[in-house]
Amino acid sequence: MGEQISRLMDGELEGAEADAAFRELKGPEGVASWECYHVIGDALRRCGEPTPGFSRRFAARLDAEPTVLAPRPKRAPRLPLVWAAAASVAAVLVVGSVAVSSLDPQSTVIAKAREANAVRTAQARPQPVSPDYLLAHQEYSPTTQIQGVGPYLRSVAAGGTDGRP
Amino acid sequence: MTCRRDRSGLARPWLRAALLAVALLAVASAARAEEAAAWLARAATAAQQQNYMGTIVYQHGGHVETSRLVHLFENGSEFEKLVNLEGPAREVIRSNGEVRCYYPDARFVRVESRTFRNAFPSLSTQQQAALADHYHFRMAERGRVAGIETQAWVFEPKDGLRYGHKFWADPVSGLLVKARIFDEKHEVIEQFAFTEISIGVRIDREMVKPTWPVVPPGWQVRQSGPGEGVAKETGWTVSRPPPGFLKVVDGFRRLHGKQEVAHLVYSDGLVAVSVFIEPVGRAPHPGGMSRQGGINIVIRQQDDNLVTVLGEVPAATVRQIAHSVARR
After folding, report:
1. How close A36 comes to chain B (CA, Å)?
2. What pLDDT, on a 0 to 100 scale, did the predictor assign at position A45?
3. Which architecture does CATH list for B230-327?
4. Which chain B residues are within 8 Å of A13, Cβ to Cβ?
5. pLDDT tens-digit series, residues B252-269
6. Would you say the ipTM is above 0.95?
7. Does one domain contain both A118 and A39?
8. A58 and A109 together in one domain
9. Long-range contacts formed by A125-130: CB under 8 A, 24+ apart
10. A155 lies in which domain range?
């Protein structure tokens, strides 16, 4: 259940699978999962605590909005957009989904996520890639070859933090 | 027989004209692919074989770093000294296939005994076709960069799976004096540019020597390096590579004492994406996405292996590849 929604947020679902996940989101359980994942994400990003009943109030205000009658826009290629959104949350989700998959009651998850604030910095920071991997890659990268200095500029730039083992 | 030939399609002038047009288009496209490949090869050769020195500004994600670069090509070998001009000093010395990175504040030297590949890989016909299929290659404006009258060239991607590239070259030597990677909104992802450069000048070996002794007393030395790659079937593959990305490397590497790591490289002729597969056992390893300049990185655990995918492509492309790594 939660997994499909997690994958949806992660931009991994398409077509029928995505439709199924959207249907799931119409149910109370689906909404709870959705909310839960976002709480985790917010906690990890230290966005502050969501106020109780936020989604209910949001839905009420959305209902009160006038309906705009306009031609439906041509459907843009969906995948890249979804991917792009996925990229921004993925780092958080990776941590989040590990926490969620191992726990069942949502309140526990939320509590854990708040607790995780203390250790979050270390976990949520993107995993530094081994400089060896970067250099091994750049050996084969045509753009690097034409720039000549690319790989070293990057390592000098990264030198302050993870450029050094 | 004659009658039949008369009725055959080729006898109809409009069809002949259409076929000729198609053939001409194909020739033109092949010519453009060749032109792009030749242009890339010239820039690569210049970066390697010219003597030059100057100040480079490197920009990525809101950061700006300035470095001083001296490059010497002598008796078939490259010598290079790169020193950053801001923040804690970092010095990269490249000579005789060895790279030394000095970190004076930490009293630390990192030595990589490795040979950078010495020539730009000449692109196969297939790769040239991929290049022409997935980028519009065109000459752009002329203009001054670093005091030089340059010619700009653009590789505009035809889909969202790759970044755009713009290069400003010195028409005389072919050397790039500015390079930019941009996304679909034409926002700069990464850029390097010389603010001043001297090309084809006399450079002495003294000018590319490190500021410190080879191994300064009391400094910590770490020998490492990507190790020589061994071309060998790894048994791994990317089941759904993004269109245009062809496998150019399949082999193992030994990275500083680690066990063998499988290394696959996919390239569209302009950029490359590397896939590293490292056996790590069942214990969970942290994964995630990150970005370093124009390089997007995805790390994910797949059963007993840690899969690291990185390349000068948008995050979506790296992710797509990371999620389709499979045993052959």
Report:
1. 20
2. 58
3. 2-Layer Sandwich (3.30)
4. none
5. 887 666 678 899 999 998
6. no
7. yes
8. yes
9. A126/A91, A126/B288, A126/B289, A126/B290, A126/B291, A126/B297, A127/B286, A127/B287, A127/B288, A127/B290, A127/B299, A128/A161, A128/A162, A128/B290, A129/B290, A129/B292, A129/B297, A129/B299, A129/B308, A129/B310, A130/B255, A130/B308
10. 128-165
